Amino acid sequence: MEEKTSRNFIEEIIDGDLESGRTQRVVTRFPPEPNGYLHLGHAKAISVDFGLAEKYGGSCNLRFDDTNPVKEDTEYIDAIKRDIEWLGYRWERECYGSDYFQYMYERAVDLIRNGLAYVDDLTPEQMREYRGTLTEPGRESPYRSRTPEENLELFERMKNGEFPDGSRVLRAKIDMASPNLNMRDPAIYRIVHAEHHRTGSDWVIYPMYDFAHPLEDAAEGITHSLCTMEFEDHRPLYDWVVEHAGVGQPPHQYEFARLNLSNTVMSKRYLKKLVDDGVVEGWDDPRMPTISGIRRRGYTPEAVRDFCERIGVAKAVSEVDIRLLEHCVRSDLNEHADRLMAVLDPVKLTITNYPDGQTEMMEAENLPGSGRTHEMPFSKHLYIEREDFREERPNKKYFRLYKGGEVRLKNAYIIKCEDIIKDADGRITEILCTYDPDSKSGMPGADRKVKGTLHWVDQEHAVPARVRIYDALFTENELGEKDLNPESKRELNGVMVEPEIRHLDPGARLQFMRQGYFVQDSVLSSPDSLVFNKVVGLKDSYKPPAA
């Protein structure tokens, strides 16, 4: 019996198009505007656009919507390409809206000749006034009755740069009484005297997105133009342009729900303000929901793709718990991250009966089940976590070290606390212990059991480092609004890491045992000054919904 595979609504549409012959080969596109860095919402769109093309053996174009020269920059183009490649996707063609400026201009001229577009002299304020409301129809512009000949002359003069910015626009002539405000004679060209990153000063008129988008899709042979639900009300205009601009085989637009994440703001405009105001270190600040930010944080592309696959594609708008993303990251790192020991808040531990000047090499496993191991030095003077010691045992369920108590040092010996040393302020500066020389891990006879096991680092060989620990950049207040979290980052200095760290790839994601998953910061870290970002903790209380 053939197994049934669950399909989302877009896949059902594509299946129907392939079966009917309307589509022979699936061609999609991802069309970002290069005016900022991509965020997790774009990661979902990328996974849909590229993922569907992959699934159906088709292709996906990367098209930069560079029709607004004031806000766009090649920095963003390079960053967008880097992010898509990091996610593991490849585009068939690299296209730009500016590739089609002449083509779109000619289509606009055709509309004017056919009496379907006119040059309007209304100010932006007047246009808003004439537009009407959701309950009241709009009013026709006094310039709507201009003849095609007048409009062609004025549009040519607009193109030649004879008018200042904002003084005139070209509008589609559709229906000022339409219940859809987008159809009330929308502007399709505006005047912008600005240097364009590709065409320089060749053009001073630029197409509006709702005019450019369907024409670009048609020019590239896009079969399924996929976008988020906020463009649903724009689809009638998309179809109008396709129908009246004479583009041949018409493309079709389909909408799906955008990604909303708990405790996360995904607005390129707002994120840019955080960068410009210096609230964060940059677009790649590890707290930012940008793809460059999560990459620097240490998230893996495999985990992000897994997350996008799990949340699926639907029309209903909902908020996804960010703990699902963290669950995907944690699951991936648990399978692939090497284990090391690092002490984040070190206190000195001395084994008084261990031979002076002696150093042993203890065998430690890199990754459970991998068979790969490394050696770590062990001697008389060590570091352990300050929080792993109490002067007195607080309760019977406390199995860490306390005065008179015993624990095992991971991969090493059982030790017993005999005494402590404090400074003048009463702070513990050293823990004095003895060890059982017959209790070495893995040796015959080392079967004596103790309930507590602690991680540690040898003092002489420890590598100093700095660690940055993150919380959500935003928190939600009582009104359901998202506020900046003042506690979103804290730094730990004086961290001690075992020397194996020197032999690992600086970009490797690691589990610091009992602490969480970490990665060296790609910007701040150097061989002489190690800085680690905490990727995600070890505990996973999130339970993904049943399939």
Brief descriptors of the model:
12 helices, 7-stranded mixed sheet, alpha/beta, single chain, about 550 residues
Give a written overview of the molecule.
With 547 residues, the protein is of the alpha/beta class. Helices cover 25% and strands 25% of the residues. The protein has twelve helices and 31 strands. The strands form nine sheets. A seven-stranded mixed beta sheet has the order 12-29-30-31-25-28-13, covered by helices on one side. The chain has a seven-stranded mixed beta sheet with strand order 23-20-21-22-14-17-24, with no helix packed on it. Strands 4-5-6-7 form a four-stranded antiparallel beta sheet. Strand 1 (27-30), helix 2 and strand 2 form a beta-alpha-beta unit. Helix 7 (209-220) packs across helix 8. It is elongated. The model has no long low-confidence stretch (mean pLDDT 94).
Tell me the number of helical segments per DSSP (H or I, 4 or more residues long): 12
Gross morphology: elongated
> How much of the sequence is in beta strands?
25-35%
Helix content: 25-40%
User: What's the rounded overall pLDDT mean?
Assistant: 94
Can you list the strand order of the major beta sheet? 12-29-30-31-25-28-13
- Estimated structural class: alpha/beta
Q: Termini, distance in Å?
A: 21 Å
Radius of gyration, whole Å? 31 Å
For this entry, what is the oligomeric state of its chains? single chain
Number of strands: 31
Largest sheet: 7 strands, mixed
Low-confidence stretches: none
